[in-house]
Amino acid sequence: xxxxxxxxxxxxxxxxxxWDNTIAREDAEQxxxxxxxxxxxxxxxxxxQPVSLRMDPFDISMIKxxxxxxxxxxxxxxxLWLHERVEQEKKEFVSK
Length: 96
Fold this sequence. Notes:
Blueprint: H1 6-25, H2 28-37, H3 57-70, H4 74-95
């Protein structure tokens, strides 16, 4: 299921078809002009909720090392991993 509301998805599909039809008839310079004036899309997201976890100090230090190696904050890495796992569990749950 998409996270975007149905009305926004429909509007984006319609806009995408319009762009495809328009771009197919335009040359590269005209396409660039259209892209320069295009409005960027921002989907509203609910605010994140803070969560407190008690973790083993060794695990925290390993996560920090891995995050540093990837060049991202350790909290972002934890969120990324949790999200991936939730999506995996969700797929398994739906397939049952």
